[in-house]
Design a protein that fits this description.
Layout lengths: L3 H15 L1 E3 H8 L3 H13 L4 E3 L2 E3 L7 H8 L11 E6 L6 H14 L3 E6 L4 H13 L4 E4 L5 H12 L5 E4 L13 E5 L1 H14 L5 E5 L4 H16 L9 E3 L8 H14 L4 E5 L1 H13 L9 E5 L12 E4 L2 H17 L8 E4 L2 E3 L17
Parallel strand pairs: 4-5, 4-6, 6-7, 7-8, 8-14, 9-10, 9-11, 11-12, 12-13
Antiparallel strand pairs: 1-3, 2-3, 13-15
Helix pairs in contact: 1-3, 2-3, 5-12, 8-9, 10-11
């Protein structure tokens, strides 16, 4: 029985020799099961050494010859983008996503097309079901924020990469284990946004800055990474003692939990909070005030999202991700890919958030001794 490494070398040799090889031919040639061949092909494709096609395997990222481009131009992809049905799958239609959806819808409508939206639930199987439903409806390109974690997430990404319609990832990137997955993507530099918040607080004299979140999402993960990287690069105190997770503002027991976090921040000498997101920042500001603290004199607060930060009392300094623009850029990129699927290189676009300075940070922090809470 051949070893996996030997089988994979034989597969690569067959692809080099013939360009495209059917899976059935590989099964017969190698004398193993179809499951084994598919597993070997998956490993090679994940490494970027081959590219899977329907029923077979080919060389990766081959440019189409002129005759094939002519066939592509006569296919549905060659029609004007204005005739397109654009499918969109997002993990929820609440919280972060409504402005993103609105941006995508505006761009698709401006091109004369129609956006068909489906909500998922941070579940790879549900993502796949919703995508399949959109394809059945005739979607000619897809915007999706898929689950990317775990083996189910990897399988979903592999499947998306093998679809015959263009797929664009929104606020998601393939993980390092899929380094050559040829999917376009547009994301927000959330980690940079965390750095903007920390650096602004440092310029005001704050040196002990806590990170507080109420939910764990891909955005939260990036913000935490950005907070940690920035704190470390600036030589600030940073540890798990300054990272807190709280219940959502207004949920049962939220006030006691927020009070407990504020007490722990006091014990740690914290003078500034970076909070994801606005609602929780408003709740912490409210509880701080009830504890006799003044924002920003005793405690500076920066939130991430800027959905309702301006309505806080006092108005919150906030980092604003470009949600509407993100959606419109994603739709524009998907339509461009649909119009030119063969020659357009893979695009990975990242948009920067902006810092909106308001009253919750004041003009100076506590540069020396911690505030006496």
């Amino acid at each position: 029985m051949t070893l996996a490494s030997e089988r994979q070398e034989l597969i690569l040799a067959a692809v080099r020799e013939r360009g495209t090889v059917r899976l059935a031919d590989l099964v017969a040639r190698l004398g193993v099961t179809a499951v084994t061949v598919r597993r070997d092909v998956t490993i090679l494709a994940d490494r970027g050494l081959v590219q899977r096609v329907h029923g077979g395997v080919t060389q990766p990222h081959r440019a189409q010859p002129p005759e094939q481009r002519a066939l592509t131009a006569s296919s549905p992809f060659g029609r004007p983008p204005g005739q397109a049905l654009v499918g969109m799958v997002v993990p929820t239609v609440e919280f972060y996503w409504p402005p993103v959806i609105q941006g995508a819808q505006s761009a698709v409508a401006a091109a004369g097309g129609r956006l068909a939206l489906r909500g998922s639930a941070y579940d790879a199987a549900e993502d796949r079901r919703q995508v399949s439903a959109l394809l059945d409806r005739g979607a000619r390109t897809l915007l999706i924020a898929p689950t990317t974690t775990g083996e189910a997430g990897l399988d979903l990404l592999r499947w998306l990469g093998g679809l015959t319609v263009p797929v664009l990832l929104v606020e998601r990137l393939p993980p390092p284990s899929l380094p050559t997955l040829p999917l376009d993507a547009v994301t927000t530099a959330h980690s940079l946004g965390a750095g903007l918040a920390v650096r602004h607080l440092v310029t005001l004299g704050h040196h002990r800055i806590a990170f507080i979140t109420a939910r764990f999402s891909p955005t939260t993960k990036s913000l935490l990474e950005g907070w940690r990287e920035t704190v470390a690069s600036l030589g600030l105190p940073g540890s798990e003692d300054l990272e807190f997770d709280v219940p959502a503002y207004g949920s049962p027991g939220w006030a006691d939990a927020y009070d407990a976090v504020l007490r722990r921040c006091q014990d740690a000498g914290v003078t500034a909070l970076f909070v994801h997101s606005d609602r929780e920042a408003i709740g912490l500001t409210e509880r701080a005030r009830d504890r006799g603290l003044t924002v920003p004199d005793d405690l500076a607060v920066v939130s991430y999202d800027d959905e309702v930060a301006a309505a806080s009392d006092p108005p919150l300094t906030a980092v604003r991700p470009p949600k509407h623009r993100l959606g419109s850029v994603a739709a524009e990129m998907a339509l461009a890919r649909m119009a030119d699927p063969a020659e357009r290189p893979v695009h990975r676009v990242q948009l920067w958030p902006t810092l909106v300075v308001r009253a919750s940070c004041g003009g100076a922090g506590t540069a020396s001794a911690p505030a006496d809470w």
